[in-house]
């Protein structure tokens, strides 16, 4: 099995072990690809879509909240040639920088929401809530 075939076969949390930031509580909807979403985050996404219309997520790994997913109205965040769509959550595109995606290739992640305002321009900030990533490390078979 090639590395690409293995990654494809394990695209929905197969072969992953819990690690990273905290524990995910409640049901997690797994999306084809690498992105999952908790019930709490799905509910907040629904509220934001009702207020703002179509929204999207971007994970930059850069300034502000660093690796916190940022939520924007579709069209209000300019995607660049280095951004790649890595999945969808609750009907919203989830994008990240291609170089960062390569660094995170061994993980699956779940978008969750917690109380508290992040240092961001993300749509949930005025609600005193913030999205965050909870990650799971995936072990590759020997030689991959």
Can you tell me the residue ranges where pLDDT is under 50 for at least 5 consecutive residues? Answer: 1-32
Classified in CATH, the superfamily is HesB-like domain
Top CATH class: Mainly Beta
Strand content: 35-45%
Q: Main beta sheet: strand number and arrangement? A: 5 strands, mixed
How would you describe the shape?
globular
- Oligomer description: single chain
Share in helix: 10-25%
Describe this structure in words.
The chain has 144 residues and is an alpha+beta fold. It has a single domain, classed as HesB-like domain (Hypothetical Protein Aq_1857, Chain: A, Sandwich). The chain is 19% helix and 35% strand. It has a 5-stranded mixed β-sheet with strand order 1-9-8-3-2. A 4-stranded mixed β-sheet has the order 5-4-7-6. The longest helix is centred in the N-terminal third of the chain and has 14 residues.
List keywords for this structure.
single chain, alpha+beta, Hypothetical Protein Aq_1857, Chain: A, 5-stranded mixed beta sheet, 4-stranded mixed beta sheet
Summarize the structure.
The protein is an alpha+beta fold and 144 residues long. It has one domain: Hypothetical Protein Aq_1857, Chain: A.
What are the SSEs and their pairings?
Layout: H1 3-9, E1 16-18, E2 28-30, E3 35-38, H2 39-52, E4 55-59, E5 70-73, E6 83-89, E7 92-97, H3 98-103, E8 107-115, E9 129-138
Parallel strand pairs: 3-8, 4-7
Antiparallel strand pairs: 1-9, 2-3, 4-5, 6-7, 8-9
């Amino acid at each position: 099995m090639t590395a690409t075939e293995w990654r494809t076969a394990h695209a929905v949390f197969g072969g992953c072990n819990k690690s990273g930031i905290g524990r995910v509580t409640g049901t997690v909807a797994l999306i084809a690809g690498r992105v999952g979403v908790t019930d709490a985050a799905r509910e907040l996404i629904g509220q934001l879509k009702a207020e703002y219309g179509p929204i999207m997520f971007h994970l930059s790994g850069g300034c502000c909240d660093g690796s916190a997913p940022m939520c924007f109205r579709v069209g209000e965040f300019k995607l660049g040639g280095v951004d790649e769509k890595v999945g969808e959550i609750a009907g919203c595109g989830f994008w990240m920088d291609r170089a960062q995606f390569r660094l995170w290739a061994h993980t699956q992640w779940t978008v969750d929401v917690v109380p508290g305002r992040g240092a961001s321009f993300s749509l949930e900030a005025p609600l005193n809530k913030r999205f965050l990533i909870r990650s799971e490390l995936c072990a590759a078979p020997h030689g991959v």
